[in-house]
Amino acid sequence: MWHTLTSEQELLRDTTARFLGDRVPLSRQRKELRHDPVGFDPGYWKEGAELGWTMLLVDEAHGGGSVSGRGAVDLALIAHEFGRHAAPGPLVDCNVVAAALSGASAGMGQDALGEILTGQAIAACCLGAAPWDLPGQGALTIRREGGDMVIDGTVRPVESGAQARWLLVTGRGDGGITQVLVPADAAGVVIRPLGSIDVTRRFAAVTFEGVRVSADAVLGVPGEGAPALARQLQNAAVMLSAEAVGAMDAAFAMTLDWAFDRYTFGRALASYQAIKHRFADLKSWLEASHAVSDAAAEAVADGAASAMEVASAARAYVGEQGVELAQDCVQLHGGIGVTYEHDLHFYLRRVTLNRLLHGTPADHRRLIAALQIEREKAA
Asked: What pTM did the predictor assign?
């Protein structure tokens, strides 16, 4: 990332980079963790929580805190390192849920928050309704029935859905967006593991068949969850964009080194004009991705009025250009780039998958258009 960092932020970033390099190198992911049903061992995630991975968006009064006072920026630094190392772990969902539960009243919400902050439990987001959905769309419905809330529908993909202890469920009903916290072992919750192109990240389809939770499981007011959902999507956009840029950084550096080391017809591959032009394009995409990703992190951290728009712009741009860059890097490597033994595919898998989580580039462009229409109507 190109942020101007404090010494504390540099320490957080460098400590995370060393930890990931030691605990989950690509060689271990390729040979060992790819077969793990979770994708990582529990001790790895707990140690990461001790480093501060899960607390940066949570108020100090509730057990959290950030090193700079700008939690989204600090978290973007960690996400960037996750991308550079193609590291496993539900960084996005756990932080989104932790931030949503920050300030929750005593009871289930506070219990869940404590477990998430310490890495003892994993939380997952079941996004069954989103601001880019057209009227009448949405994968989940949440309705009030007596003193309970009843959830119906299916959401996919849900990261670490089969490993999660807590589910933050977003659906439509009672006049708008409603969010509830649901234990993953609640009656009527059916979780089916899904295949994934990522080597170590696990996903699932989560079905709610008349799942009942008490009214105190609702976050906020039923039907009035849209502002909270917008903040959660901003946080997710910052992390996903930063992670993708980290993966782009690693793929570009790897390919540049290869082009200078690989000789053909007595010349370095990088010396050919056509290759230079391709690298110029890749570098421009990378720098622009850095810029828009950093801008999103800063806007969200500062609570700017434009935060949703900038965050969605980052997701739309990085989501498109990240895949283009990684695909070009594979092509520039030639045949070796498509082998499983080479490291490049880890980054291609990561940016391709991130492109689809918490809204596709098309979804975020649709959201930006809706925000612009609202602005013009208000003018």
From this structure: 0.95
